[in-house]
Amino acid sequence: MVKFGLQFKATLENVTNVKPEGDDFRWFLKLKCGNCGEIPDKWQYITLAESVPLKGGRGSASMVQKCKLCARENSIDILGDTITPYNADDSEKFKTMVQFECRGLEPIDFQPQAGFVAQGAESSTQFPDINLQEKDWTDYDEKVRESVGIYEVTHQFIKC
Predict the structure, then answer these.
(1) Where are the beta strands (DSSP E) in the chain?
(2) CA-CA distance, 87 to 95, in Å (whole number)?
(3) Cα–chain-centroid distance for residue 22?
(4) Quick one: which of 149, 156, 155, 136 has its CA closest to 12?
């Protein structure tokens, strides 16, 4: 089993504590089979809320799938205690937001979507249900009368 970290990077304007919200947050990933190298065209999502038993009673994972090319059973599990918010101090730097424990799979791409939350850096105003699919998000913080935003969202995977 190998652990991969999803590192998040963005430019934050007047917001902090950017993080996925809830156990049902959908991590949209492209996964590569470690056995044959097959990469499905479609995005697949995993959540903390879903748990599937592994064959042979070896525990459970967020997703278990058979490779369509080589028929190998692979799994990926979200390590919930590794989920970390991205803060104003992290702006424009890569920071590991979550780790995945993989058996036979390697995450190669991530597509942020809806379900992120943040708060105003100065006001603590809550900004729920942020959608980062367009790699940019903007709003207005009424309390401090300033624009807020998350810009130039990018990512990378690292082995942990």
Answers:
(1) 2-13, 15-20, 27-33, 44-46, 52-53, 60-61, 63-66, 73-79, 95-103, 105-111, 116-120, 126-130, 137-141, 146-159
(2) 9
(3) 12
(4) 149
Q: Residue 122 corresponds to which tokens in the numbers above?
A: 């100065």
The amino acid that residue 20 corresponds to is: P
Which two tokens mark 56?
């042979």
Residues 14-70 pLDDT 10s: 999 999 999 999 999 999 999 999 999 999 999 999 999 988 877 899 999 999 999
pLDDT band for position 146 (cuts 50, 70, 90): very high
For the CA atoms of 158, 1, 27, 116, what is the dihedral angle to 10 degrees? -60
